[in-house]
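Hi C.,

You asked whether I'd gotten around to modeling the 182-residue construct. I have! Everything is below, sequence then structure, no commentary in between.
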Amino acid sequence: MAVLGSKSPSERFGEVVLPHLADALALARWLTGNVDDAEDVVQEACLKAFAGIETYAGGNARAWLLTIVRNVFYTWLARNRPRGLVITGDLADLDELSAAPEAGVADPDGPEAELIAKADTAALEAAISRLPPPFREVLVLRDVNGLSYREIAAMLGLPLGTVMSRLSRARGLLMSELGSER
């Protein structure tokens, strides 16, 4: 195997970035809430990744690319969305939310179950898209992209406890919202 430094930028890009494009697009889709905007964010992230591929020092290529996607998303958000859409607030306000009890599902092999599963998936996706961005990004990075708590903490520049707290709050918000829809 050749030394990383001896490869062309195109070869390094192909090895480091291309295997993780689906994950990058999935993260961008969750963050933007729109496939077209997500594609724009990933395209810009790929340009930045290609420009910086010589500085990539190894390690977790997926986390490196997703960090670029996240940073590009926030730049894109500042350019393309009014400031009023960025949600901020006191996290202590969310302590009052509680999880709702689970509901049962009919025959697991019947067509009704398939329709319910599709409706549940759509409801889950809609609920995730309504989460405040700090909670949504941690939830998507952990539960959708499968990154570890440490990888998320490093990626977002947050303490490990903050990542765990945000993930817990995001899950609680989802359970509360999804429970109230039943």
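If it helps when you're writing up: Residues 85-106 have pLDDT under 50 and may be disordered.

Thanks,
B.
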